[in-house]
Predict the 3D structure of the following.
Amino acid sequence: MLKKEVTIYDLAQKLHLSTSTISAALNDDPAVNHNTRKTILKTAQELVPERPDGIFTTNDFLAPVCMQKLKEHSIRVTKDTVIVGLNNDVISKLTEPRLTTICYPGEKAGELAACSVLDHLAGISPGNPVKKLRAVPS
C-alpha cells in the first residue's frame, strides 16, 4: 500500500523541472532527452518505493495501456497488482489477463436525468426525487 500520493508537481518541484516536462517524460514523448527521462523515472521510483495494491482506471480503454506499462516494468497484473476498468466495454474481454470492469449503466443514467429534467420543466414534482442506479462488477 502506498504511504504517500506522489504527483507530477512533487516531481517537478524536486527536480526543478516544469510539470509539462514531467508529464511528457512519463508519456514517452520523444522530445524529452533520454537522460532527463531516466532521471525523472528514477526519482519517481525513489519517491514511491512500493507498488500500488491496485489501479482503478476511468474507462476500459485506459486499462490495457496501464497493463502494457506495468509489463514493461516487470510488474505482473493479477500477481503483483490489479487493474479495474469502468464501463464494461468490448476491449475488457480482449485483454490478457482479462480485465475486471464495472458495468456502469450510463445510458440508463442519462435516461433518468433527461426524464427528471423534462418532469421539472413540465412542473411535475417527483414523488421520490432520488433515483438509484446499480453498478456491478462484470
User: Anything to note?
Assistant: Residues 1 and 138 are 25 Å apart (CA to CA). The chain has a mean pLDDT of 83. The two ends are 25 Å apart (CA to CA). The helical segments are 8-15, 19-26, 34-47, 63-72, 106-121.
